[in-house]
C-alpha cells in the first residue's frame, strides 16, 4: 500500500502546483460557494500543514502504527477520491457548463489512483483485523523469524 500512497501523495504536490498557478484559491470560494476568496498565504499554509500530516501518514503505514492511519484514510477519501470526483463537478457548479476549472487536469489522475488506494487500504484494514501477520514467516520447525 505504501507505494500507491506515495504516488498519490506525489500527485497531490502536482495538484497543488496546478491549483496554485491557476488561482484555485480565489476562484473556488467565489464561483462555487459565493464566498470570499482565500488569501494566498492561507491557501499555502493549509496545504503545507496538510502535507506534513500526510507525510506522517506515510510513516504510519511504513511503521505499522495504527493511530495515525486516520490521516491516511482522510487523505484517501478527501484528498484523493474527493478531488477526483469534485474537480470535474466544479465547473458545472461555477458556470453551469463542463469545462476547465483550476485543478481539473491533475485531479483526473485520482480517478484511477483513488479506487486502487482505497482497495489497498481496505485490504490492510481487513488483514489487520483478522490477526494475520504477513510480515512474519514460519520455518519448518515452527519457529518464527523476520
Q: Considering DSSP H and I runs of 4 or more, what fraction of the residues is helical?
A: 55-70%
Structural class call reads mainly alpha
What is the gyration radius calculated from CA atoms? Answer: 19 Å
Order of helices and strands: HHHHHHHEE
Beta-strand share of residues: under 5%
Shape: globular
Poorly predicted ranges: 131-141
Average pLDDT across residues?
A: 88
Number of helices: 7
How many β strands by DSSP? 2
Distance between the termini: 20 Å
Largest sheet: 2 strands, antiparallel
Spatial ordering of strands, largest sheet: 1-2
Report on this model:
With 146 residues, the protein is mainly alpha-helical. Helix content is 70%, strand content 3%. Strands 1-2 form a two-stranded antiparallel sheet. Helix 1 (2-21) packs antiparallel against helix 7 (110-129), helix 3 crosses helix 4 (69-86) and helix 4 packs antiparallel against helix 7. The chain is globular and about 45 Å long. The model is unreliable at 131-141 (pLDDT under 50).
Topology:
Layout: H1 2-21, H2 24-33, H3 40-63, H4 69-86, H5 90-95, H6 104-107, H7 110-129, E1 137-138, E2 144-145
Amino acid at each position: 500500500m505504501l507505494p500507491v500512497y506515495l504516488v498519490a501523495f506525489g500527485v497531490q504536490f502536482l495538484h497543488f502546483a496546478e491549483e496554485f498557478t491557476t488561482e484555485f484559491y480565489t476562484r473556488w470560494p467565489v464561483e462555487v460557494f459565493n464566498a470570499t476568496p482565500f488569501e494566498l498565504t492561507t491557501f499555502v499554509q493549509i496545504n503545507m500543514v496538510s502535507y506534513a500530516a500526510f507525510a506522517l501518514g506515510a510513516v504510519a503505514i511504513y511503521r505499522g502504527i495504527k493511530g495515525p492511519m486516520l490521516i491516511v484514510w482522510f487523505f484517501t477519501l478527501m484528498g484523493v477520491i474527493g478531488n477526483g470526483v469534485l474537480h470535474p463537478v466544479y465547473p458545472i457548479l461555477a458556470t453551469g457548463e463542463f469545462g476547465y476549472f483550476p485543478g481539473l487536469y491533475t485531479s483526473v489522475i485520482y480517478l484511477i489512483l483513488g479506487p486502487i488506494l482505497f482497495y489497498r487500504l481496505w485490504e490492510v484494514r481487513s488483514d489487520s483485523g483478522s490477526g494475520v501477520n504477513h510480515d512474519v514467516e514460519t520455518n519448518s520447525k515452527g519457529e518464527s523469524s523476520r
